[in-house]
Amino acid sequence: MIGRLNHVAIVVPDLPAATATYRDTLGARVSEPVDLPAHGVTTVFVELPNTKIELLHPLGEGSPIARFLEKNASGGIHHVCYEVDDILAARDRLKAQGARVLGDGEPKTGAHGKPVLFLHPKDFCGTLVELEQA
Amino acid sequence: MIGRLNHVAIVVPDLPAATATYRDTLGARVSEPVDLPAHGVTTVFVELPNTKIELLHPLGEGSPIARFLEKNASGGIHHVCYEVDDILAARDRLKAQGARVLGDGEPKTGAHGKPVLFLHPKDFCGTLVELEQA
User: Fold this and answer.
1) Scanning A37, A57, A101, A113, which has its CA 20 to 30 A from the CA of B117?
2) A1–B26 CB contact, under 8 Å
3) What residue of B is the nearest CA neighbor of A77?
4) With a CB-CB cutoff of 8 Å, which residues 17-76 of chain B face chain A?
5) A27 phi and psi, to 5 degrees?
6) Interface test with B, best of A22, A24, A25 (most B CBs within 10 A)
7) In what residue span(s) does the VOC domain sit (chains A, B) (predicted)?
8) DSSP states of B78-104 as a string?
9) What is the pLDDT of residues B81-123, one digit of tens each?
10) Among B8, B11, B21, beta carbon nearest to A8
11) % chain B with pLDDT above 90
12) Is B47 a catalytic residue?
């Protein structure tokens, strides 16, 4: 069912510093920061040859990643995102197997303008999993 | 400098259960478990079209991931591994920029039989980074 690893998301306390780390220290290609107010994050995309790293920083009040940063002051890996062909079929298959889909179970529009869902970390090896319709 | 994302490593408390989650629930292709006594882990490789997920479980006494599992009973993402063309050149560039290389700074032979190094999480956005010579 799952296809490509679309991205690994890393929450960072200082987005310019993290961008410099990936660009200058690790020598990767990075994007300009992109504000995503609907998601409560500012993102910098690190382009690797086979996938992306997304550096995330809270944007505005009530950002969904604010609490993660409180608990992980240096930042840390927040989630992995796997691609699926059909997000509703994927959701229904997962639910039929007892896996918990976060929120109301309806796909939202993700950072790339595509339908996404998040799965409960306790059902996936302690890992927050995002599914994105490819 | 960094190239492909070689893998994401996820430490899991129950390797057969985690394998079943990735194989049956998420529908991915998974390997048989592979014991790596020199690394103190048993690994299952999850093959995605563009990269790998490595499920890790402690093997033997003094496994380097035992403490992680004590702190993260449900498991969690342990590290990301980026490929580099020349690991000694990469190390020297990183050290020249003040980044900390773990251990004695000499590459070890990693899970894929290639030279690897680990970088200090505090210097890389709270993320343990492995470099593997491609």
Assistant:
1) A57
2) yes
3) B127
4) 18, 21, 24-28, 48-51, 53, 55, 72-76
5) 70, 35
6) A25
7) 4-134
8) EEEEEEES-HHHHHHHHHHTTPPBSTT
9) 999 999 999 999 999 999 999 999 999 998 889 999 999 999 9
10) B8
11) 96
12) no
Select the residue of A1, A74, A121 nearest B122 (Cβ to Cβ): A74
Burial class (CB in 10 A: 0-12, 13-18, 19+), A21: buried
Confidence at residue B49, expressed as pLDDT on a 0 to 100 scale? 98
| DSSP secondary structure of B19-80 | HHIIIIIS--EEPPPEEEGGGTEEEEEEE-SS-EEEEEEE-STT-TTHHHHHH-TT-EEEEE
Residues with pLDDT less than 50, chain A: none
Between CA B99 and CA A26 the distance in angstroms is: 10
Q: Which of B17, B57, B45, B100 is nearest to A122 (CA)?
A: B17
> What's the confidence (pLDDT) of residue B83?
98
Taking CB atoms and an 8 Å limit, are A18 and B125 in contact across chains? yes
Residue A67's contacts (CB-CB under 8 Å, 6 or more residues apart) are none
pLDDT of residue A111: 85
Report CB contact under 8 Å: A82, B12: no
Domains of chain B: 5-133 (3.10.180.10)
Q: What is the pLDDT of residues B38-49, one digit of tens each?
A: 999 999 999 999
